[in-house]
Amino acid sequence: MDLKVGRYIVGVTNQNKLLFPKAGISKIDLIEYYLAMAEHIIPYTKDRPVTMHRFPDGIGGKSFYQKEASDYFPDWLDTVKVPKEDGEIEMVMINKKASLTYLANQGCITPHIWLSKKDKIDYPDKLVFDLDPSDNDFNVVIQAAKDFRKLLEDELDLKTFIMTTGSKGLHIIVPIIRNKNFDEVREFASGVCKIIANDKPDDYTTEIRKDKRKGRLFLDYMRNSYAQTSVMPYAVRALEGAPVATPLFWKELQGKMNAQRYTLSNIQKRIENEENPWENYYKSRKSLSKPMQILEKMLNR
């Protein structure tokens, strides 16, 4: 079957293959979802290298992460060559609806995106803090997210955005002006986590080793590094029920909210009935220069 997506023809193979057998979700269902959601997704993926999490035989089969664009990918698929230790690698970007459609047909259920764009690949335009509970207590994650917001907005004068990961936790995203490199941004993110963990040492930790966390919530800043990725907003996760990584309003962090609240079956109703919680995302970027100075003073108290 061929789909005309904009100016491009995307071939769809094995359209009835069940990617989520228990939920009865087929490949064409995934493709139709990404087609419908493309206008909401592409503003956050445009010009960013993508790592594809592919499931050729559905979520019950083998999966793999793919960074390098395959030789057989069509010429119209946007790519970028990015430096790595022993040379460079050509990676896919999701700049148009047809690209999202093509990758879904390749069994890419979940795209993961870089924190930087092709034109300034060493300079991220966002911070990402990853909060995953060590158990199933999502209330701990909600409280941690609120603690991050208080520090980042009230003390450091930055703007924060919140998103369920569709898996276990939450991502806090901070849009920033691209004037600091990854090393500088990661050091800043590490300092933010240290402040929060030191304030509540019984609840939070920055300890990398799991055996030293002792049930405390790990405040993860490690995504703020070159070539690291975070899950794409509105990406489907390869879990039963097809949960979706969903941008939220901060006021929604209460009650029955959890990381898998929104799924392929209910996310589009949310989009139709709710305003965009990230409407001012790209208008909210700020420089880290002054926040870095404030944070350094806080760490040296």
Automatic annotation (TrEMBL):
Gene (name only): ligD
Residues covered by the DNA ligase D polymerase domain: 27-278
Natural source organism: Marivirga aurantiaca
Any one Pfam family match given in the protein's UniProt record, by short name: LigD_Prim-Pol
Name of the molecule in the record: Non-homologous end-joining DNA ligase
GO molecular function: DNA ligase (ATP) activity
EC number in record: 6.5.1.1
CDD domains listed in its UniProt record: LigD_Pol_like
Keywords attached to this entry: Ligase
InterPro entries per record: LigD_pol_dom, NHEJ_LigD
SUPFAM superfamilies: Prim-pol domain
